[in-house]
Design brief:
By secondary structure, this protein is an alpha/beta fold. The protein contains 13 helices and 27 strands. The protein binds adenosine-5'-triphosphate and magnesium ion.
C-alpha cells in the first residue's frame, strides 16, 4: 500500500496514457511541463492536493517540470495571506516548484498586447451592452445568441476605446472587451466571451497600475503558452472551455500550444470542498479558522495530525478519472492510520479518569517500568513509566455489574495493567450524594510484574493507566465528520448539514509523564484510543492539547475487504 509519489501512475491514470502517446509521437518535442494554477482567494483543500499530486507527480514521473502559477486576475477577492499559505502547503505536501514561481499578473502587459493583437485581427471588440442585455443577447443552450449591436465597430474605434478602458476613462461596467467568435455556436463559451473587464481596484502585486483585468478563460491559455506548458491539466468543468482555449492560441498563432486535459474533481463524503463555502465557515466563525482540525483544508488536516505522506497516498489510491464520483472519507482516514501505525510512538492517556488506590502497594514506593515505544519496531526504543500506589484508569474500563462479554475491571475481577502488574478490584467507593463511582480500591500481585515471565494466571483484559503523582494534565479533542452526509441532512443550504457533534473537548485528561517532552505537532498512538498529535496552536507551556487525528477502527479496510 505504501507507494512513493512517483509511482502515482501505477494506478489507472488516463492522462499518463495520453502523455505516453505524445512522447511516442514527439509532440511538444518530447517535453512534459505542467503547472498548478491556484487562485489566491482562500486556503488549499484536499481537492487541490489531488491536483498538486497530479501535476507535480506527472512532471516527476516524466522527468519534466511543474510550475506554480497564481491566477491572480481578480484583485477584489485575493490576498497575500493566501499566497503565502498556498506556498507553504505545497512545500509541506512535499513538492517543489524550484525557481518557477509565477503570477498571472506578471503577464498583464503581454496579455494586454495580445488583446490589442486580437482587435487588430478583427477578433475582438469593445461592447457597451450592460450585464442584463448581454445575458439576453447570449441566448440559451437551446436558443442561439444574437450579435451585439457593437460587434461591427471598426478596428480603429475598438483600439481607441480599449486604450481608453486601460487609461481609466470609463467607469466599471461601462464596457468590456469581447472576443469575436460566433454567437450561434452551440457552445456558450464561444458566443463572444468577455476577455477584459473594467475594475478600479488595487491589486496586491500591480497596485493601481491597471484598471482593466483579463478574465480567467483568457488569461489561462496565454499564461500556459508563455510558460511553455505542454499539458494543462484541469478539472472537468473546463471541458466546455477547451474550444475557447484552443481558439485563442490558434488565433494568436502562439508558438507553444499546450494540450488541455480534463479530469474529475475529488469529492469526499461528509465534507464540503469549495473555497467559497469554506471561506464562509471561517468568516462566520463557525469554525476555528482555516486550520480548524475539522476542515478539509491542507492546513486543517495538518493541524489534525495528517501527514504529507498519507495525503499523497490517498491521492494516489483515488486515481485519476474522467467522471465525477464521491470518495468515502473513511478511505482518507485509512491512509493516515496506515502511516501513523508505522511511525507514531505509543503512549498512555486517560480521557475519562477513574482513581484507583492499590491498597497493598507501599505508600512511598515508586518504580520505573519499561514500556516499548512501538510494538513492531524495536528501533523506536523504550521509555520509563513511573508506577506508584495511586493510579488512574479509564472510567469506561470499570463496570460494577458487567455484562457477559465485558473483560475489563469489575468487583472481584483481575486485569493486567499494560507494562505493569495484575490488579484486582476489591471495593468500590461512591459519592454519598450522587452514587457515582469515584474511586476503586485494588490489590496488586508483585509476582506479575511485566517482563518477569509470570504466566500462571490468565487474565482477559489489559488496561492502560497513568500514575497520579506523575501524570500530566491535558486537554484532548475528539473529532467527528464536519458535515452530515448529503443524503441525510437538508441539502438546500450546506450550513444546515454542519455536524453539531463534530468536536468534543475533554479538558480533564491525564497523560503519562513522558509527554512532557512532546513537541508541537508530534504524533502518538494513545493505546486503545487512536492516533493523536500535539495541537500546534493551543498548546502552551502550561497546557497540553491533543487532537485526535483518527480512531483505531478502520472502517474503510473493512468495506474494501467486503467488496473484494
Ligand atoms: P474551489 O471551487 O474550491 O474554489 P477552484 O477550482 O476554484 O476550487 P482554484 O484555486 O482555481 O480553485 O484551483 C486550482 C486548481 O486546483 C485548479 O486546476 C482546479 O481544477 C484544481 N482543483 C480544485 N478543486 C479540485 C478538486 N476538488 N479536485 C481536483 N482538483 C481540484
Ligand atoms: Mg477557480
Amino acid at each position: 500500500m505504501s507507494k512513493k509519489i512517483n509511482d502515482i501512475t501505477e494506478h489507472s491514470n488516463f492522462i499518463h496514457k495520453i502523455i505516453d502517446e505524445d512522447l511516442k509521437n514527439e509532440k511538444h518535442s518530447g517535453r512534459v511541463h505542467t503547472r498548478f494554477p491556484p487562485e489566491p482567494n482562500g486556503y488549499l483543500h484536499i481537492g487541490h492536493a489531488k491536483s498538486i499530486c497530479l501535476n507535480f507527480g506527472t512532471a516527476k514521473k516524466y522527468n519534466g517540470l511543474c510550475n506554480l502559477r497564481f491566477d491572480d486576475t481578480n484583485p477584489a477577492r485575493e490576498e497575500i495571506e493566501y499566497v503565502e499559505a498556498i506556498k507553504s502547503d505545497i512545500k509541506w505536501l512535499g513538492f517543489d516548484w524550484e525557481d518557477r514561481l509565477f503570477f498571472a499578473s506578471d503577464y498583464f502587459e503581454q496579455l494586454y498586447d495580445y488583446a490589442v493583437q486580437l482587435i487588430k485581427l478583427d477578433k475582438a471588440f469593445v461592447c457597451d451592452l450592460n450585464a442584463d442585455e448581454m445575458r439576453k443577447y447570449r441566448g440559451t443552450l437551446t436558443e442561439k445568441g444574437q450579435n451585439s449591436p457593437f460587434r461591427n465597430r471598426s478596428i480603429e474605434e475598438n483600439l481607441v476605446l480599449f486604450e481608453g478602458m486601460k487609461n481609466g476613462e470609463f467607469k466599471k461596467g461601462k464596457c468590456v472587451l469581447r472576443a469575436k467568435i460566433d454567437m450561434k455556436s452551440p457552445n456558450l463559451n464561444l458566443r463572444d466571451p468577455i476577455i477584459y473587464r473594467i475594475l478600479h481596484a488595487e491589486h496586491d502585486r500591480t497596485g493601481d497600475k491597471w484598471c482593466i483585468y483579463p478574465m480567467y478563460d483568457y488569461t489561462h491559455p496565454i499564461s500556459d503558452a508563455i510558460e511553455g506548458i505542454t499539458h494543462s491539466l484541469c478539472s472537468l468543468e473546463f471541458e466546455d472551455h477547451r474550444p475557447f482555449y484552443d481558439w485563442l492560441l490558434d488565433t494568436l498563432k502562439l508558438k507553444n500550444h499546450p494540450q488541455q486535459i480534463e479530469f474529475a474533481r475529488l469529492n469526499i463524503t461528509n465534507t464540503v470542498m469549495s473555497k467559497r463555502k469554506l471561506r464562509s465557515l471561517v468568516e462566520e466563525g463557525l469554525v476555528d479558522g482555516w486550520d480548524d482540525p475539522r476542515m478539509p483544508t491542507i492546513s486543517g488536516l495538518r493541524r489534525r495530525g495528517y501527514t504529507p505522506k498519507s495525503i499523497r497516498e490517498f491521492c494516489d489510491i483515488v486515481g485519476v478519472a474522467k467522471s465525477n464520483s464521491v470518495v468515502d472519507i473513511a478511505m482518507l482516514e485509512h491512509c493516515v492510520r496506515e502511516d501513523l501505525d508505522q511511525n507514531a510512538k505509543r503512549g498512555m492517556a486517560i480521557l475519562k479518569p477513574l482513581r484507583v488506590v492499590i491498597e497493598n502497594y507501599p505508600e512511598d514506593k515508586e518504580e520505573l517500568l519499561i514500556a516499548e515505544n512501538h510494538p513492531k519496531n524495536p528501533e523506536m526504543g523504550t521509555r520509563q513509566m513511573p508506577f506508584s500506589k495511586v493510579i488512574y484508569i479509564e472510567h469506561d474500563d470499570f463496570l460494577e455489574d458487567p455484562p457477559k462479554k465485558f473483560f475489563r475491571l469489575a468487583p472481584g475481577r483481575e486485569v493486567r495493567l499494560k507494562h505493569a502488574y495484575f490488579i484486582k478490584c476489591v471495593s468500590v467507593i461512591k459519592d454519598e450524594q450522587t452514587g457515582d463511582i469515584i474511586e476503586l480500591r485494588c490489590t496488586y500481585d508483585p509476582e506479575t510484574k511485566s517482563g518477569s515471565g509470570f504466566n500462571k494466571r490468565k487474565v482477559k483484559g489489559t488496561l492502560h493507566w497513568v500514575s497520579e503523582k506523575h501524570a500530566l494534565k491535558a486537554e484532548v479533542r475528539l473529532y467527528d465528520n464536519m458535515m452530515i452526509d448529503e443524503s441525510e441532512g437538508n441539502t438546500d443550504d450546506f450550513k444546515n448539514r454542519i455536524n453539531e457533534k463534530s468536536i468534543e473537548k475533554l479538558p480533564n485528561c491525564l497523560v503519562e509523564q513522558s509527554f512532557a517532552n512532546a513537541e508541537k505537532g508530534e504524533h502518538f498512538q494513545f493505546l486503545r484510543h487512536g492516533y493523536f498529535c500535539v495541537d500546534v496552536k493551543d498548546t502552551t507551556k502550561e497546557k497540553l492539547v491533543f487532537n485526535r487525528t483518527v480512531s483505531l477502527r478502520d472502517t474503510w479496510a473493512k468495506i474494501s475487504k467486503k467488496n473484494k
